[in-house]
Amino acid sequence: MQPTKIIMDKITTINGILMATQNDFNEHVEDATVHVTEEERTAWNAKADASALASHEENAAIHVSREENDTRYGQLNAENTWTQPQTCNAVVNAKGGICVPEPSSAQEALNYDSWLSFRAANEWPLVCNSGVAAIPVWCEIIHRWQAGNIDCRTANASVQYGAIIPDDWYHLVFNFTPAPGLSLLLGKTHPWQFPEFIGDYRYMKEWAGAVSWYLSNADHVSLMIGATSHGWGSQNNSYSECYVHPIHWATSNMVSYRYPYANSINSSNTRDSSPAYQLTTYGREYLGASFSCLVRGTHLGAPLDQIEYVWTLVPSISRIAVAMAPRSSQDYRDTMNRWELWINGNYVMPMTAGFCGTGHTAVVSTAVKAHDVTATRQLGLRMSGMRVDNRNKLGGKSAIEILGQVVMSGVTPKPIPVVEASMLDVPAAGGDVILTVSSALAEDIYVLNDTMCGHDPAAVWCRQSTEQVPGGSGEVTLTLAANATGEGREVWAFISHHYGQASVVKINQAA
Prior knowledge:
Blueprint: E1 13-14, E2 17-18, H1 22-29, H2 38-45, H3 50-57, H4 66-73, E3 75-76, E4 81-82, H5 112-128, H6 137-147, E5 150-153, E6 157-164, E7 169-176, E8 179-188, H7 195-198, E9 207-216, E10 222-227, E11 278-282, H8 284-287, E12 293-299, E13 308-314, E14 319-325, E15 335-343, E16 346-354, E17 364-373, E18 377-389, H9 399-408, E19 418-421, E20 425-426, E21 431-438, E22 445-449, E23 462-464, E24 468-469, E25 473-480, E26 489-497, E27 500-501, E28 503-509
Parallel strand pairs: 20-28
Antiparallel strand pairs: 1-2, 3-4, 5-8, 6-7, 7-18, 8-17, 9-14, 9-18, 10-11, 10-17, 11-12, 12-13, 14-15, 15-16, 19-21, 21-25, 22-24, 22-26, 23-25, 26-28
Helix pairs in contact: 5-9
């Protein structure tokens, strides 16, 4: 009898006892769901029993309620709003935007200064490079007012408001047709109209302003912008003495045009008549210079006998900006505030304003002049500006602090060159003065003197060996011609890096 072969995959019972198939058995062995591992068994056996769990749930010392959690983290459940400061060390994505409500108290406004700074930091570069800045309506008003209030002009001078030359738009376009002698045009506003925008700053803490001008064809003319020389006064006769000199000119008659009106040489009690600031530019072609334009600013926040102009040399002039900043701790006690000067997007130097009540602008004026015009000249002028406004005083800083910090962030002023002159008093017979110049900055230094005037080469009685000193150190020789005028005379030399404040050397020549 042959043994019976038992096929386990097919038999499901033996002697009436139910058996699993081999396949079912293998699947059961491999089923991880129905089996407990050694680690799972250990963890299960370590669990607390029901009595321990009940006492744990009742232990208030180790549990935090939802209300307690909200108090701890400053989050209100109903509004999902944080009521306490939060620190995030990663990016926060706010797809619906971030709404910053207006603070209701100074305590809530501790970061309001940052918001004002953020806005100013975005706006200032556009104003400083005013070719692309938004133009506030008060800039339109100032120039429209000036165009309609021409105080002085020569017969060959005219002005257009809102004109295009050659493919750009300007608030004012000054036109000079060919004519011998002086060409002049002066437009101005009425006095005390714009203190909140381009005025001085003393007790006002609510606002701070910056102004800029975008220029076209400034190389052939001298341009004066800002306020008039003294308050609202200006000479309306183009033959007045104040307009004669190519460099030392003003809009009012004075004793000495080498100094501002408020200097004690001109008047001993005129601080209240000082403008907020005044800028005068002299183009390369206007001067007959090879490398540099000359720019004159105002230092009015000084004792009366020390009020003076400040000077710089620049390669060209297409954009000028001035911005209000706080007085420095080194400034004179009657310094009201500073006006930081920028040209072509480069920081140049501070100007200062003197004390005058709570702020003033006098008359906002624009004067343009040229000499012996041989071809039609056009100067385009477009004005822009900005204002930091903190009139609710919600932040910890004043508006002028915020604007000053934004404007001067990352700025390193160029050093003023050191100059030694071989002599400062020259005999009537003339002679050479050797200027030895040096600077901590290894960058070219430039030199101009104030007898330079391209319209009249015969008037240049002080010649110089060069206008450029390479590398930040070297010598320049000034040669003074014999003085046959019968009176003593003076020549000033201006020495600076481009876009840096100049040293001024004052040389006297005997009669």
